[in-house]
Amino acid sequence: MTLTFRQVIEHLTAGIRKPDGTVDRLEPGAPESEVQGIVTAFGASQHVIEQAALLGANLIITHEGVFYSHQDNRDGLENDPVYLQKSSLIASTGVGIYRFHDYVHRYTPDGITEGLLRELEWEPYVERHLPHVSILSIPSATVSEIAGYLKRQLHIPYVRAAGDLSAACSRVGVLVGYRGGSAAAIPLFEQESLDLVIAGEGPEWETPEYIRDAVRQGRSRALIMLGHAESEAPGMKLLAQRLTLQFPELPVHYIQDQPVFQIV
């Protein structure tokens, strides 16, 4: 059975109203192209595109943008050698790239958050899913112990933590991606009686500084930042598993990039 890019995208977006100003789009690629194989990844990096070509996959489904801008603003890149070489690679492989960002965050529960919770084996501890956060009651552990567990489960070399690392935590809010800023994270401590927020990233002068002041005042509140990719990549891994079940005749691969930052 022939399957086209358009049919895969329609499957991914079925039942969800098109988000206003969505960044989700197929570019490059022709909707009626036949799918030879699918790769999912957090981002369509040079490495991911090269690996997709080696695997014979002609459709990459990426959560984040290709050219270093959420809104795909390429001003100033026209003569940049990195941009030009990557553009040449994409053209030479003939791969189609579908940005799958806004729709998957509107799944119920959020498809990216669900992937992270599954990777952590924390789904049994979920009390409820809200649009931007999942509220959990986990077995009590210290901030330091939870940080170590996160690193082991996600196979990442480090996380960043703020607060008293010896404080015991059981009420946890999990926010993926760029949801660790003050507006999204800080109210949760009072509204949900949280001990700990686990987020991807956010401005360093917002929630971390709130945690600094809370600890100074004698309040037991903590924050762990996983990193943007580290918090969202598991969602794209889960997507690959689901596409394999939905389209068993197609080769589907999840490609994991190495963490972009190194500890020096």
Automatic annotation (TrEMBL):
GO terms for molecular function: metal ion binding. SUPFAM superfamilies: NIF3 (NGG1p interacting factor 3)-like. InterPro entries: DUF34/NIF3 (IPR002678), DUF34/NIF3_sf (IPR036069). It comes from the Bacteria. A divalent metal cation binds at H63, H228, E232. Gene3D superfamilies: NIF3 (NGG1p interacting factor 3)-like. The keyword Transcription does not apply. Pfam families: DUF34_NIF3. Keywords: Metal-binding. Belongs to the GTP cyclohydrolase I type 2/NIF3 family. This is GTP cyclohydrolase 1 type 2 homolog. It comes from Paenibacillus borealis.
